[in-house]
Give the backbone structure.
Amino acid sequence: MKQILTFLTLIVGSLVGQAQTGVGKITGSVIDGNQKTVEASTIALLRAKDSSTVKFTAADKNGKFAFDIVSNGRYLISVSAVGHQKGFSEIFDISDTHSVIELKQINLVPQTKGMSNVTVTAKRPLVEQKIDRTVVNVEAAITNVGASALEVLEKSPGISVDKDGNISLKGKEGVLVLIDGRQTQLSGAELANFLRNMTASQLDQIEIMTNPPAKYDAAGNAGIINIKTKKNKQAGYNGSLNLGYTQGKYPKFNEAFNFNYREGKVNVFTNISHNYRKNYNKLTINRNLLNENTKQLEKYFDQEANMINEGNSYSAKVGLDYFATKRTTYGVVFNGFSSPGTYHNSNQTFISDPNHNLLSDTRATVDNTQSWKNFSTNLNFRTLLDTAGKELTADLDYISYDSKNNQYLVNSYFNYMGNSVAKADTLMGALPQNIKIYSGRMDYLQPLKGGARFEAGVKSSVVKTDNNAQYDSIQYGQIIHDFHRSNYFIYEENINAAYVNLNKQLSKRIGAQLGLRLENTNAKGTQVTTGENFDRHYTQLFPTAYFQYKANDKNNFGLNYGRRLRRPNYESLNPFIRFLDRYTYQQGNPDLKPQFSHNVELSHTYRNFLTTTLNYTKTVDIMQTVIEQKGEEAYAKQANIANQRQYGISVSANNPITKWWTNSIYVNVFNNKFNGLVNNAYVTVNATTLMLNGSQQFKFAKTWTGEISGFFRTAGVEGVLIAKPMGMLSAGIGKQMFKNKGTLRLNVRDILYTQRFSAKAKYGNVDAKFTEERDSRLVSLGFTYRFSKGKMTNTKKRTTGSASEEQNRVGVGN
């Protein structure tokens, strides 16, 4: 650790030293075509060669601006202001002999129309490939109409979702999911449930970062997915109304309303939505029961579960920004979410001897009533310390999650002739969970000489979860407390972190960014029922490094490295038992420890549209869902089972083929290998997987658009499971109406009904196959209406909170 610190300190010191060279200064002023002063205009300093942005500033009330400490080179100035067309300066040089440049006045041309009756409908590409991330513009895809946020993720480049809703990126689990830069504090089944109840109409963009910089929490073995919701940047008022109806096996519908009002120094915004969904799942499990010692076949278990989930979700966000000065903004945001619902499972298990002679038939019904509530408050602050771009931001977050899950399980037993052979048993469970999160962070940004940028920050969070699971049995009409299954678990955690990050252009062709994050973790778990507990303390360093080389105008190369970790989510630590039937269930594991990974990527971008990336990842103590078998019972739990090695290559292309046809395609090939012990048996699982994501968009006329999209995945490894191929094909059409203020879209998803999950597991005494079908073939009709009255504003709104990594680890189960 000392060697890493010394090495990074030397490098950062060296780059800071280089960043001090260059003493150029640029001054100028802006007026409009009527010789009036233009206030609050945004000034951008651009490199003349490629128009890339070096830094920003703002003109003062007299229209004057200045850039200090600019390195030698050729530049030009770009000016943007409300109600004016964009303006540019002449190209100029800064050198040792011409270090002070005074520009001619820049005249902006007023727009002929005001913004009050103009609707902006600029078309964004579906996928944008940036230096450190891939950006998916959600509304650019017609086939996202009526979809949930989880379904939008599922068809995004490099992302896959397994049968339980766990999200993988480029074949690696442990993705950190953020909403507007803040973590949801959800993981596993509850994160999947949350995203299923969030509609695509609420989303703006999805940012995919496989190797995030040091500013972000070190959590997220596979990287970070940031889901950005819709925001407004207009003075006056503006908003949108979204309505959607979807028909599959069962109907689904959603409504959402967004509104923003800006007047003077105050900006108020709100987002209200409702979503009703009824989903159907069919799960088939074929399990061969082997003798633990001889591994000889003893029985066949053939199980079929028909599950129906039904529920409503209600969400509301209300916020206020107060612009105290042109440089300082205070903000407060309140979020509320409620999702009551029911779950019903009708389950039947046939047990046969090795000759397939039926021995018995067990029929089970499981009914759950669920209530899930979330409330969060964010206080934020942002101030610009000077005109050079020094910035200080801060966040305070409070988040609470409360869930209730009441379970009622009945097992009935019959012989091979269908006659009852034993009295039915009944199990009742009350599974509440309460989570409180307190978090705060502060970040500092300072531009340095020569176009460099220095960032630093600190963060601290406190989390407490309280889980008191109570099980009761009904025996001969009497309720008997089940002490064996009941469990009371309390988990407390404190994480403290600090980071530094430096970005520097070393030469015209080479750029570098180095970062270092330190995280201190203190965790305590107590099983009140049994008296067992753990107390863990550890401090870790997480370095990141990025290097870019621009060979010429057509070819760019990048190399990055990062060390990351994945902490157990709260649901996985909780030793609750959740039953599918008498023989199969899920259970938490309080002995879980964090996993650590090293990630390396080498990329090449050709003409800004074709990107090829090679990646290598080594993970130790990887957490995976495993299947263990005790007698006739089989159960799934997460465990630190193995080490994992992955290498792969991905290619993405996003380009217009003609004026009316745009192509977006992503191809990823990777090999995963696991080595470890599961249920006292050594397991090696190795497989190569091909993933394809694609979208073809068409513009038929000024107001008509169409799209064909889909994904395909060959057989691959998901933990200890070998998953079979799976894919989906969708198509949609859209029509602009009401003077481009309204959009009507029709979409059909999973046209061929091929989105079915199938897998097998075979190791030790486990030999099983799984197949899941869901209500995935859907027809959706959606309508969006946008309204506005006001002017565009360039004010930056704070969206990132402090409770990021913590929020992503909440889980209460479905």
